[in-house]
Write a structure and sequence with these properties.
With 312 residues, the chain is α/β, with parallel strands linked by helices. It contains 7 helices and 15 strands.
């Protein structure tokens, strides 16, 4: 008997407000939420997209085609200085908190290259010993995101075989990319992580679709941010923005499309759910996107540079 299909895993999705543009305080918040997750018995925690140092919603960075301004460079510098590097005291603090809590973490960050200095919207994967065991960098920043974040390639379409299941995921509107989703499905992802900045109600349909399409558990994490959370120097740039900049909508969904927790709106919080892996097996009876529904005699699928699943 395959006992793995009868296991149950307790997971948590964090919907919280970062300390915008402040890496020190944002790391403090990450550590605090990790402790809260451990107190709830979670074995895996997911943080929102770019929780460190924030998702700079509503800011234009004085963008215009063909010209950059001093203001745009000053704002960029502020964001750049508060973004996180892999080998840093900030990452070490997070690793130590994770090791103490003994749980797996998916952490949405803006990652700064230590060579060159480009920024990437990234999903960092930590094992329950606090080791940074993998990362995914957003393939295609959307709209003006491209002004602040560089693009990635298939080499960070990361999947992990862990003691709690096969984990992978995509960031925000990458989840609208059918072939990017398929890159996760072909690795047999069981727990699909989707940190996002999209707080539209329609996002719930996308998350439910992925759960049904991939026959996987879907964890979606978003921030809750109000205009008043931004530093004083940005308030003038946000004068025409609503008070609630991001209402949240974090959710946990089963492979059968059932909402297990959430969606959570207009507040911070920790969503917790127990993932019953027998449902994964049952869900493949009538649909398996990489199995009896795959039709390899008709379709071929290839991802350039995608790494093999890493054993953790």
């Amino acid at each position: 008997m395959n006992n793995s299909i009868h296991k149950k895993v307790k997971v948590g999705v964090i919907q919280a407000t970062p300390s915008l543009f402040d890496i020190e305080k944002s790391v403090d918040l990450v550590v605090d939420w990790i402790k809260k997750g451990a107190e709830q018995g979670c074995e895996l925690l997911l943080f929102p997209e770019s929780f460190i140092p924030c998702y700079p919603r509503g800011l234009s960075y004085d963008a215009m085609i063909g010209r950059r301004t001093d203001k745009s460079r000053d704002q960029w510098l502020h964001y750049w200085e508060n973004s996180i590097e892999e080998n840093s005291i900030h990452t070490q603090r997070i690793s130590e908190a994770i090791a103490e809590a003994n749980l797996f973490v998916g952490l949405g960050v803006t990652e700064r290259e230590n060579v060159g200095g480009s920024l990437h919207c990234a999903l960092w994967y930590f094992d329950n010993k606090g080791n940074l065991v993998g990362k995914h960098r957003k393939l295609k920043p959307t709209g003006l995101e491209r002004y602040i974040w560089a693009e990635s390639d298939g080499s960070t379409l990361t999947t992990l075989q862990t003691t709690i299941g096969k984990i992978g995921g995509l960031i925000c509107w990458e989840n609208y990319m059918p072939l990017a989703r398929m890159s996760m499905y072909q690795k047999g992802v069981e727990i699909y992580l989707a940190p996002t900045a999209d707080s539209r109600e329609s996002w719930q349909s996308t998350m439910q679709h992925i759960a049904l399409e991939g026959r996987c558990f879907v964890l979606a994490a978003n921030q809750y941010v109000q205009k008043s959370d931004y530093p004083a120097e940005y308030q003038a740039d946000l004068h025409d923005q609503p008070e609630v900049m991001c209402a949240g909508g974090s959710v946990i969904i089963s492979p059968m499309g059932e909402v297990l927790a959430g969606p959570l709106w207009h507040q911070e919080g920790l969503l917790v759910a127990e993932l019953d892996f027998s449902i994964l097996a049952k869900s493949k009876l009538d649909f398996d996107v990489t199995g009896h529904y795959a039709r390899p005699d008709v379709f071929e699928f290839k991802v350039n540079k995608q790494p093999e699943m890493r054993m953790v």
